[in-house]
Amino acid sequence: METTDLLRKYNIAAPRYTSYPTVPYWDNQNFEEAQWKSRLLTAYEEYKEEGISLYIHLPFCESLCTYCGCNTRITKNHGVELPYIDALLKEWEMYVSLLGERPKIKEIHLGGGTPTFFSATNLQQLLENIAGAKQFDTTAACSFEGHPDNTTPEHLQTLYNLGFKRLSLGIQDFDPKVQFMINRYQTPAQVQNITELARNMGYQSINYDLIYGLPGQNMQGLTQTISEVISLKPDRIAFYSYAHVPWIKAGQRHFTEADIPQGDEKFALYQKGRAMLIAAGYEEIGMDHFALTTDNLYIAYKQNKLHRNFMGYTDQHTQILLGLGVSSISDCGTAFAQNAKTVEEYKQHINEGFLAVQKGHLLDAEDLSIRRHILNLMCQNSTCFDTAVPAEVMQRLQPMIEDRLVAIRNREVKILPLGRSFLRNTCMALDDRLWQKQPQTQLFSAAI
Ligand SMILES: C[S@@+](CC[C@H](N)C(=O)[O-])C[C@H]1O[C@@H](n2cnc3c(N)ncnc32)[C@H](O)[C@@H]1O
User: Fold this and answer.
1) Which of 70, 133, 271, 432 is paired with 27 by a 20 to 30 Å CA distance?
2) How many angstroms from the chain centroid is the CA of residue 11?
3) pLDDT at 220
4) Does ligand 1 come within 6 angstroms of the Cβ of 270?
5) Which residues of the chain fall short of a pLDDT of 70?
6) What is the pLDDT of residue 134?
7) What's residue 32's pLDDT?
8) What is the pLDDT of residue 232?
9) Which tens digits make up the pLDDT trace of 330-378?
10) In 10 A of CB 19, how many CB atoms?
């Protein structure tokens, strides 16, 4: 089948599967904070030795990037930093007292928003208080997201001294026309400067975030962006498909659908970018990700140790992920919990002495099994059932088998090379909760 026909058939609304069940399918009715705490404690008793992953959401940005799908708060008032840090530390101490000790931290990621909105001094205060007297383990994977426009040498040095060895820079596109459309500006020279500074300090892995399908993007501009990126040789690249969800993110209504490359045009941008990255020595990993063969993400992929969580792909895997801050999601393996989504609600709960958990899901045995298979597909491009592939899954996969996107060998479902671009569709075939209750309104962005 021609690519155009495949796109017509499979470019439907599809989850990104950073969790199973996906957030819109959580059974919030049957979830209570007390159950979250109890499941977390049970998991902690079993897994405390391996340590936990910690995600800290720092939502503030000085200006609105109109494409952005993340939970953000736009302000130029830096007076918000300390009260927010105070709430984060109170939340952390609530978890410490629940667990009865300061857990060992195996992975920590500062995400946003724009973590580099915060001054280096304030970030240092936050992190030193999180680590307590223990300091961060030297083997912990510590990373942060920085905006090239406001990441300073002080940020880099302060975080490096605290154990941070990985940096992720949000670039999205270097084309000035696209940058104007998305209201986000940074030059290749700025990015080169930060990259070189970080490398000279000793940062071991530098990631760039890029997006294809942005408003105003075209083949010429994207080719130029990817050439510039390749010349700077980041260790990892996330090359995301633009998720257009204007019914959720009002910022995306700053441009119209006519401005966005879609269907064949969008897919051609992806294929061009992918081909250039592969020709430059990058390996494609899971969905949307590329890495040099020297990078830990690639090594984890080759060793079948790649993991995917709410932050995306990671080379670390802990049973427990605690998310601190507004809208953060925590996961203890058998339950998910998400914090309140506005800064005001979040701070109010915390300052009243409660966790800010607002919704969640308790996974049953069926969920756990499907979750494992979807993770396998997302991370290893195949999964093997204990007995036969369930009949309903076979039936849902049939069109993809006929179109040579997927193959079934005995108990194994395997993604074929052509199917790698349609990974989300294959996962959907296993997503029982989605099939049981088809959405009445559009919940997810398009698969491509
Ligand atoms: C919260 S942003 C971090 C940005 C970083 N803190 C900065 O300011 O440079 C995380 C990443 O998610 C991706 N992202 C955000 N909105 C997106 C959308 N609508 N579609 C696809 N990817 C998106 C972007 O690549 C972005 O760099």
Assistant:
1) 70
2) 21
3) 98
4) no
5) 133-135
6) 66
7) 95
8) 98
9) 999 999 999 999 999 999 999 999 999 999 999 999 999 999 999 999 9
10) 21
Q: For residue 39, what pLDDT is reported? A: 98
**What are the sequence ranges of the domains in the chain?**
1-21+364-448, 25-361
Please give the distance, rounded to the nearest whole angstrom, from the Cα atom of residue 134 to the centre of ligand 1: 32
Q: What is the DSSP letter of 34?
A: H
Atom of ligand 1 nearest to the CA of 241: 21
Point out the ligand 1 atom lying closest to the alpha carbon of residue 112: 1
The pLDDT assigned to 3 comes to 79
For residue 277, what pLDDT is reported?
Answer: 98
Q: Are strands 73-74 and 60-61 parallel, antiparallel or unpaired?
A: parallel
Polymer length in residues for the chain: 448
pLDDT number for residue 444: 80
How far, in Å, from the CA of 249 to the mean position of ligand 1?
Answer: 13
Question: What pTM was estimated for this model as a whole?
Answer: 0.95
State if residue 58 touches ligand 1 by the CB under 6 angstroms criterion.
no
User: Quick one: angle between helices 81-99 and 120-131, nearest 10?
Assistant: 10
Ligand 1 binding pocket includes 70 (Cβ within 6 Å)? yes
Ligand 1 mean position, distance from CA 74 (Å):
15
Q: For a pocket test of ligand 1, which of 68, 150, 288 has the largest count of ligand atoms closer than 8 A to its C-beta? A: 68
Q: How far is CA 256 from the centre of its chain?
A: 26
Q: Is 141 helix (H, G, I), strand (E, B) or coil?
A: strand
Residue with CA at minimum distance from ligand 1 atom 4: 170
CATH architecture classification, 1-21+364-448? Orthogonal Bundle (1.10)
Does ligand 1 come within 6 angstroms of the Cβ of 69?
yes
Q: What is the CATH number of domain 25-361?
A: 3.80.30.20
